Amino acid sequence: MNQDNAKTNDQNAQINDIMELKNEDVFTVYTNSVNLAFGYYDFQFLFREQYPSFDGQGADSINFVRLVMSPQHAKIFNMILEKNIKQYEENFGEINVSDNFLKSLNLLEE
Protein backbone atom coordinates (compact mmCIF):
# COMPACT_ATOMS: atom_id res chain seq x y z
CA MET A 1 0.00 0.00 0.00
CA ASN A 2 1.47 3.36 -0.97
CA GLN A 3 1.64 6.36 1.35
CA ASP A 4 -1.34 8.16 -0.26
CA ASN A 5 -3.58 5.11 0.19
CA ALA A 6 -2.46 4.73 3.81
CA LYS A 7 -3.23 8.41 4.43
CA THR A 8 -6.69 8.03 2.86
CA ASN A 9 -7.38 4.91 4.96
CA ASP A 10 -6.34 6.77 8.14
CA GLN A 11 -8.65 9.66 7.27
CA ASN A 12 -11.52 7.24 6.50
CA ALA A 13 -10.98 5.49 9.85
CA GLN A 14 -11.10 8.86 11.64
CA ILE A 15 -14.34 9.75 9.83
CA ASN A 16 -15.84 6.38 10.83
CA ASP A 17 -14.80 6.97 14.45
CA ILE A 18 -16.50 10.38 14.39
CA MET A 19 -19.66 8.92 12.88
CA GLU A 20 -19.79 6.29 15.65
CA LEU A 21 -19.41 9.04 18.27
CA LYS A 22 -22.35 10.90 16.74
CA ASN A 23 -24.46 7.80 17.27
CA GLU A 24 -23.44 7.50 20.93
CA ASP A 25 -24.58 9.63 23.81
CA VAL A 26 -21.57 11.97 23.84
CA PHE A 27 -21.59 15.36 25.54
CA THR A 28 -20.01 17.97 23.26
CA VAL A 29 -18.86 21.42 24.39
CA TYR A 30 -17.04 24.31 22.76
CA THR A 31 -13.93 25.50 24.56
CA ASN A 32 -11.62 28.40 23.80
CA SER A 33 -9.66 28.37 27.04
CA VAL A 34 -7.79 25.70 28.98
CA ASN A 35 -5.80 25.84 32.20
CA LEU A 36 -3.25 23.17 32.95
CA ALA A 37 -1.93 21.99 36.31
CA PHE A 38 0.24 18.99 37.04
CA GLY A 39 1.64 17.08 39.94
CA TYR A 40 3.74 13.97 40.26
CA TYR A 41 0.81 11.62 39.60
CA ASP A 42 -1.38 13.46 37.10
CA PHE A 43 -2.07 16.29 34.67
CA GLN A 44 -5.29 18.26 35.06
CA PHE A 45 -6.91 20.27 32.28
CA LEU A 46 -9.73 22.70 33.05
CA PHE A 47 -11.61 23.41 29.83
CA ARG A 48 -13.89 26.43 29.72
CA GLU A 49 -15.35 29.09 27.46
CA GLN A 50 -14.24 32.68 27.90
CA TYR A 51 -16.33 35.58 26.65
CA PRO A 52 -16.38 39.35 27.09
CA SER A 53 -17.72 40.46 30.45
CA PHE A 54 -21.28 41.75 30.51
CA ASP A 55 -20.08 44.89 32.32
CA GLY A 56 -17.38 45.49 29.70
CA GLN A 57 -14.56 44.98 32.21
CA GLY A 58 -12.34 42.07 31.15
CA ALA A 59 -13.68 38.59 30.52
CA ASP A 60 -15.92 36.06 32.19
CA SER A 61 -15.83 32.31 31.77
CA ILE A 62 -17.87 29.18 32.30
CA ASN A 63 -16.10 26.03 33.52
CA PHE A 64 -17.12 22.94 31.61
CA VAL A 65 -14.86 19.98 32.19
CA ARG A 66 -11.92 19.02 34.37
CA LEU A 67 -9.97 16.28 32.63
CA VAL A 68 -7.39 14.36 34.69
CA MET A 69 -4.90 11.89 33.23
CA SER A 70 -1.69 10.13 34.16
CA PRO A 71 1.65 11.58 33.00
CA GLN A 72 2.00 8.66 30.58
CA HIS A 73 -1.42 9.30 29.09
CA ALA A 74 -0.68 13.05 28.86
CA LYS A 75 2.55 12.37 26.97
CA ILE A 76 0.83 10.06 24.49
CA PHE A 77 -2.04 12.56 24.15
CA ASN A 78 0.54 15.25 23.30
CA MET A 79 2.18 13.01 20.68
CA ILE A 80 -1.18 12.21 19.07
CA LEU A 81 -2.15 15.89 19.07
CA GLU A 82 1.16 16.92 17.48
CA LYS A 83 0.75 14.24 14.79
CA ASN A 84 -2.80 15.38 13.99
CA ILE A 85 -1.86 19.07 13.91
CA LYS A 86 0.91 18.22 11.44
CA GLN A 87 -1.60 16.32 9.27
CA TYR A 88 -4.07 19.21 9.51
CA GLU A 89 -1.41 21.72 8.38
CA GLU A 90 -0.36 19.44 5.51
CA ASN A 91 -3.99 19.37 4.34
CA PHE A 92 -5.13 22.92 5.08
CA GLY A 93 -2.04 25.08 5.59
CA GLU A 94 -0.18 26.42 8.60
CA ILE A 95 -2.14 27.39 11.69
CA ASN A 96 -1.06 30.93 12.49
CA VAL A 97 -0.71 32.16 16.06
CA SER A 98 0.61 35.65 16.77
CA ASP A 99 4.02 36.00 18.40
CA ASN A 100 2.53 38.36 21.00
CA PHE A 101 0.03 35.71 22.07
CA LEU A 102 2.75 33.04 22.27
CA LYS A 103 4.88 35.41 24.39
CA SER A 104 1.94 36.01 26.73
CA LEU A 105 1.81 32.24 27.31
CA ASN A 106 5.60 32.03 27.82
CA LEU A 107 5.87 29.83 24.73
CA LEU A 108 8.17 32.16 22.80
CA GLU A 109 11.30 33.93 23.93
CA GLU A 110 11.22 37.74 23.66
Describe the structure.
The structure is a single chain. Strand 1 (33-38) and strand 2 form a beta hairpin. The protein folds into two domains: 29-69, no CATH class; 71-109, no CATH class. The mean pLDDT is 83. It contains three helices and three strands; from the N terminus they run H-E-E-E-H-H. With 110 residues, the protein is an alpha+beta fold. It has a three-stranded antiparallel beta sheet. It has helices spanning 3-23, 71-92, 99-104; strands at 33-38, 43-52, 59-69.
How would you sum up this structure in a few lines?
This protein has 110 residues and is an alpha+beta fold. It has helices at residues 3-23, 71-92, 99-104; strands spanning 33-38, 43-52, 59-69. A 3-stranded antiparallel sheet has the order 1-2-3.
Which helices and strands appear, and what pairs or packs with what?
Layout: H1 3-23, E1 33-38, E2 43-52, E3 59-69, H2 71-92, H3 99-104
Antiparallel strand pairs: 1-2, 2-3
